[in-house]
Amino acid sequence: MASTPATMAPAERQRRLELRELLNAKYQFIDRTWDAVFWITAIFIVAGAADITKLLFAGDWDFWTDWKDPQWWPVVTAFATIIIPSALQWIQWVAWRFPTGATYTCTCLFLATWIGRYFQWHIAETYPMNFVWPISTVPAAIILDWLLMRTRSFVVTSLFGGAIWAIMVWSFNYIPLAPFLQPVPFMHHIMTVSDVQGIAYIRSQTPEYLRHIERGALRSFLGETQYVSLLFGGTMAMIGYWVGQAIGRFLAVWPIGRYIKTL
Amino acid sequence: MRMRLAMVLSIAILISSYATRALAHGEAADEPFLKDLTVAYYDVHVTPTQVKVGDPVTITGSVKILETWPYTLDPPQTAYITPVVPGPCFALTERLINGESSPGSIFVDKGGIYQFKMVMLARNPGHWHVHPGIAIQGTGTLLGPGEWVTVDPSGQPFKLDVTLLNGKTVDLEHFGGAFVWWWSLAGFIIGLIWMLYWTVPKRTVTRLAVTMQLPVNDDAPDIGLITPRDHMWMDLLAGITVLMLIVGWVYMAAKYPVRLPQQTVRFAPDPISPGDGLIAVHPKGSTFDEKTDTLVINFQVKNNGASPVSLKQYIMAMTTFVDGDKQEMAAAGPSEYVGQLAVDPDGPIAPGASRDITLKMTNEVFLQERLIPLHDPQQLIAGLLRFQDAQGKENLVTLKSVLVPTEFQPQYLP
Ligand SMILES: [Cu+2]
C-alpha cells in the first residue's frame, strides 16, 4: 500500500502520526528482555519444527552425500525445507512487519542440524562429517525474506520465491557437493566419490537399494534430468510455500489468538 | 496396596527377564519364521579376528534364499549383501558376489545361492561382533552368524585413501569436509547479520500494537516499521548472498570440471547350483524340547543318484549342525553358531535306497537366537540338508517341517 502522507486525508495522517509515536513508545512492563526471551526460546521450537518437517518429507535425502542425486534431491528438499520458513514468514511479517521468518527458521535449523550431525553422527556414530554434512538453506531464506520485504505480497513471494528457493537451495549446496561427484574407479566400476562413501562407511540397516536416486529412464529428457528436476522442484516449493502459509495462518497463530481471547 | 505393589514388581521382573534374553543379541528380536524360512547361511568365516586399525578383515560364506520363503513377505527381488557391524567401525573396500565385483545391490531369486567375499578395513578400535547380512527389499536385513573381532589401536589415525580417475589420491576420512563447513558457515553468517540487524536495534514484541492497526501489505515507512534505510541494508545483504553464490559456482566449475551423477550398479549374479537335485526328501515332523534345548527332525530321504551319499550338515538360519569331528565343525563357521548333529541311522545312503532319518541337535543357540517358533502363528521351521558323496560332490536340499513343541510353557502375558 502506497503510504505517502502527502496524499492522505488529514485524519488518516494524524492516525499514522499517532502510530509512529506508539511504535517508539516506552513500555513500563514489556521491555527488551521480553524480546530476547521470545527470540531465544523460539530457537528450539522453530528449529525442531523445521527439522521434523524436513525429516518427514525429505528423510535421508539431506543426510548422506550419496543420496544427494540429480533427480530427487532438488525436488524433495526444496519442498520439505520451504514449509516452516514460509509459516514463520507469515507470523513474523504480520505480527511485527519483520522480513525475517525464513532467515530465522533457517539459521536456527542450521545450528540444530550441525550440532546434531556433529555430536550424534560424527562423535557418537563415528561417520565422517564429509559424509553426513547437512545442507544449508540460509542463503535461500535471505532471498525469500528479501522478496517479501520488497514485494509485500505473499502471492508474489510464493510464485517467484518458490522457484528461487529450489534453485538457491540446490545450487548453494551443489557447490560443496561437487568434489564428491568426481569420478573414481572403485570395485572395478567407475563411480562418484559419494557412492564410494556410501559403500565404504557401512550402514547395515540402510541398504543401497533404499536410495531413490536417478537411475535413468525414458523420461530422463535427453539425459538432462537435473534441469527438469529443478523446474519441478520450483513448482513443489511453491506448493510447499502454501502448505507453510496454511500452517502459519491456521495452525500456529489462530489457536494462540483464541487462547488470548479467553484470558 | 501391598498386593498391588507385589503385582507391579512381579510384572517388572517378568518383563526384565524377557528383556535380558532379547538384549543378548539384537538379532534375536526377529521372529523365528523370519529367520528360518527365509535364508540359510553356511561356510561363513570372518578372518582374522585380531587386527590393528587399518588392517583388512575378510568375511566369506554363502547364503541361500530358501524356496520356503514365507508368503507373508514380499517375494525377494532386490538384495544388498552387507557386513552387519555396529556403525562404521569397519570400512568396506571390496565385495564379490558369486565371483563378481558388486559395489551395489543385486537381483535375487527364491532358491538362489549367493557366495560372498567382503573385505573391510578395521576403522575403530574395540571389540566388535561382525556378521554378514542380506538386506532384502520389503523384508529387511537378515543376519548370518557373527564372529567377535578385536581391533587394537595402531598409533595412527585411520585413513581411507582412494585414487580418483584424475590420478589424485584423497583420504575419504576428511576429503572436502572443511570446505563444506566454511562455505556453509559463510552463508550462515550473512543470515546471522540479517537477524541481528532486525532484532537488536529494533524492538519486537511491542510492534504488534502498531501492526495490528495496519493492513498486512503496509510496511509503513512513514511510521518507521520498515524504512528506506532497512531496504538499503537488506539489498546489500541479499546482493552479497547472490554474489557469493556466483563466485562459488565459478570456483566449483573451474576446480571440479568433471562431475558424475551417482551410480547404480545392479546385476543378477551368475547362478550357483545347489547340486544335481537327485535327492528327494519328505518331512515327517519335528519337535523341540525347551527344557533340554533339543531339536528333533524326522524325514524320509530317497537317493535317486548314481553314487552313495551321506548327510553331513543341517543348516538353519545362521546356524550349522555338523555330523563330524572338531575339525569339520571349525570349518563350518563361527563356533557360537555351530553345533553337533546326531544322524540316526548314520552312514551312506545307497543309490536308489529310501531311508527314514531322525536328526537330533541339542544347543543353547536355539533359544539364544530365538530360532524355534514356540509361541508363533507359524509353527514351521526350514533348513538345508547338506549331502555329500564319496567324491565330495554336494547336494543342498531344503527341508520344511511342522514343529510341535514337546510342551508349551505357561505364560502370564498374552
Ligand atoms: Cu552380533
What does this structure look like?
The complex is a heterodimer of chains A (263) and B (414). Chain A is mainly α and 263 residues long. Helices cover 67% and strands 3% of the residues of chain A. Chain A has one domain (31-262): Ammonia/particulate methane monooxygenase, subunit A (particulate methane monooxygenase, chain B, Up-down Bundle). In chain A, helix 2 (32-58) packs antiparallel against helix 3 (73-96), helix 2 (32-58) packs across helix 4 and helix 3 (73-96) packs across helix 7 (154-177). Chain B has three domains: 24-157, Jelly Rolls; 177-255; 279-405, Immunoglobulin-like, CATH 2.60.40.1580. Helices cover 22% and strands 36% of the residues of chain B. Chain B contains seven helices and 22 strands. In chain B, strands 18-17-16-21-22-14-15-20-19 form a nine-stranded mixed beta sheet. In chain B, strands 2, 4, 7, 9, 10 and 11 form a six-stranded mixed beta sheet that branches. Mean pLDDT of chain B is 91; it is low at 17-25. The interface between A and B is large, with 100 and 104 residues. Bound molecules: copper (II) ion (CU).
Key attributes of the depicted protein:
heterodimer; A: 263 residues; mainly alpha; particulate methane monooxygenase, chain B; 10 helices; 67% helix; B: 414 residues; alpha+beta; Jelly Rolls; Immunoglobulin-like; 3 domains; 22 strands; binds copper (II) ion
What's the SSE blueprint?
The complex is a heterodimer of chains A (263) and B (414).
Chain A: H1 10-23, H2 32-58, H3 73-96, H4 101-124, H5 129-132, H6 138-151, H7 154-177, E1 183-186, E2 189-192, H8 193-200, H9 225-252, H10 254-262
Antiparallel strand pairs in A: 1-2
Chain B: H1 2-23, H2 32-36, E1 39-47, E2 50-52, E3 56-65, E4 78-84, E5 90-97, E6 100-101, E7 106-107, E8 113-122, E9 126-136, E10 140-143, E11 147-152, E12 161-163, E13 169-171, H3 177-199, H4 208-211, H5 228-255, E14 279-289, E15 294-303, E16 309-316, E17 319-322, H6 326-332, E18 338-340, E19 342-344, E20 354-362, H7 365-368, E21 380-389, E22 394-405
Parallel strand pairs in B: 2-11, 14-22, 17-18
Antiparallel strand pairs in B: 1-3, 3-8, 4-7, 4-9, 5-6, 5-8, 9-10, 9-11, 12-13, 14-15, 15-20, 16-17, 16-21, 19-20, 21-22
Bound molecules: copper (II) ion.
